[in-house]
Amino acid sequence: MELDFRSWGGSKGGSGLSVDGFKLLADAHEYLMAAVRGVPEEAWGAATPCSEWTVRQVYHHARLDQQALTMQITGQAPESDPFEPVDALAGDGAEAVMRLEATLGAALKAWESGREAESVATPMGPMPAQAGAMVAALDAAVHAWDIARATGQDLPLTEDMAERLELPAGQVVEFVRQSFGKFAPVVEIPADASRADKFLAFTGRDPYWSATTG
Asked: InterPro entries in the record, alphabetically (predicted)?
């Protein structure tokens, strides 16, 4: 299975919606920041929809993923392996928020630097920065939902964001699932489920997950 990003330049999602990748990334980053700001100090060790990881680990994974996706633009590798996130924080929740703000700001700046280029280098091969920003948005948004859900915050993935994320999800999720096994299998949910719930299920998440039922 191969990725084809040639059509991602003024991209349209499955519904024909025009998607601005840079705006989508900014919105996904805002969602992730809101989720991390809302984590109670006692909840950093809580279980998450990512069954093997705590909230602390999902936080680190999400932050490191943003670094990894831009490392060939910035020339800087992530601080550590995103798929081996530590179950610890350097400082308290306020420190975690500041570190995330710095990471997301640098990532957005990196994608913006390639806005006028035909393509930029990424771990998945050359692609328009518009497409890379959408991939980064996909990653940030799903982990924002993971953290919010795990900590009982009223921060659902909106229908609007889910619709805009359908394009990068349709291009990337199955490729990553088949090639690297990094997304769980699609979760079966009712046909009349919301757009956001269907999107989450496609990424291998149970949209009805709760800390009490797992």
From this structure: CHP03086 (IPR017520), DinB/YfiT-like (IPR034660), Maleyloyr_isom (IPR017517), MDMPI_metal-binding (IPR024344)
Helices (H), ranges, 38-182:
55-74, 93-113, 129-150, 159-180
d(CA 54, CA 40): 13
Condensed to tens digits (0 to 9), the pLDDT of residues 90-121 reads: 999 999 999 999 999 999 999 999 999 999 99
The half-sphere exposure of 53 on its side-chain side, counting CA atoms within 13 A, is 19
Verdict on whether the full-model pTM lies above 0.85: yes
CA-based nearest residue to 155, from 1, 22, 36, 19: 36
Largest CA distance in the chain: 48
| Nearest Cα residue to 167 out of 46, 28, 7, 2 | 7
